[in-house]
Amino acid sequence: MINLFDIFSPTNIILFIAIVTRTSGLFASAPMFSTFPIPHQVKIWLSASIAFLMFPLIQAHTAFYAPTSIPELTVILFKEFLIGYAIGFCANVLFVAIELGANMFSIQMGLSSDQALNPLSGGSSPTMTQVYSWLMTMVFIALNAHHWLFAALYSSFQSMPIGYGFAFSPEVVHQIILIVSQIFVIALKISLPIFGVLFITDILLGFTSKMMPQMNIFMVSIPLKIYLGLILAIMFVRPMVEYCGVLIPRFMQTVMAIF
């Protein structure tokens, strides 16, 4: 016979709260969950639901002792939120890199002043950046990459158990820094084909203005670069999607290996 006093013991209640806290940290920074305007009530119930599913597995494989004071509980919950936030932050590096790459060639196209409200981030960004962000999100969902997020979350309870132990070893911090450093590499790979063609176009327009001083090159370059950039962006949609289809699984496996 199941004893309800054992199930709802203070240790189990605090353990469940700690699991919810780590899951909430994941949703606070993870792609798709933090970038879309999802209501906070939905995020809270989703965090509690996932924690409810994970609780029996985590309780069976952890030796957790309930804290005896409020400061100890605060330290544990802060650590749990930080671990979950770090997992989501590492996964969100991909979206930041895509947005940075789209910003680079958007500025080269002359669309730096084309700012619109971005519902993903809540701020203003060029239209091309929003298009690439939505495209990246669709690829992310199509590959079921959110499953890797939850797998990394569950594996983190084994490698970084709930308790007072320090979670972030020098190796983990080093791997997180390496992942963050990939932002500029990925952004450059995304933007270089379009950015390079537009840069060469600027050089050719400069030669044209020297050879034909009477020509108003400024009025010609603005629509030319916009049309050329849009055509190139359409041409490179499929290669970009294929590149992201290879990059996302490899990136998420790296996140799982860290946590």
The span between the termini is: 37 Å
Cα-based radius of gyration, to the nearest Å: 24 Å
What is the total number of structural domains?
A: 1
Low-confidence segments: none
Task: Describe this protein's structure.
- The chain has nine helices and two strands; from the N terminus they run ααααββααααα.
- Strands 1-2 form a two-stranded antiparallel sheet.
- It has one domain.
- It has helices spanning 4-7, 10-29, 40-60, 70-109, 127-142, 145-159, 170-211, 217-235, 237-258; strands at residues 115-117, 124-126.
- The longest helix has 42 residues, at 170-211.
- β1 (115-117) and β2 form a beta hairpin.
- The protein is mostly helical and 259 residues long.
- The relative contact order is 0.14.
- It starts with a helix and ends with a helix.
Please give a quick description of this structure:
The chain contains nine helices and two strands; from the N terminus they run H-H-H-H-E-E-H-H-H-H-H. The chain has 259 residues and is mainly alpha-helical.
Explain the layout of strands and helices.
Layout: H1 4-7, H2 10-29, H3 40-60, H4 70-109, E1 115-117, E2 124-126, H5 127-142, H6 145-159, H7 170-211, H8 217-235, H9 237-258
Helix pairs in contact: 2-3, 2-4, 4-5, 4-6, 4-7, 4-8, 4-9, 5-9, 6-9, 7-8
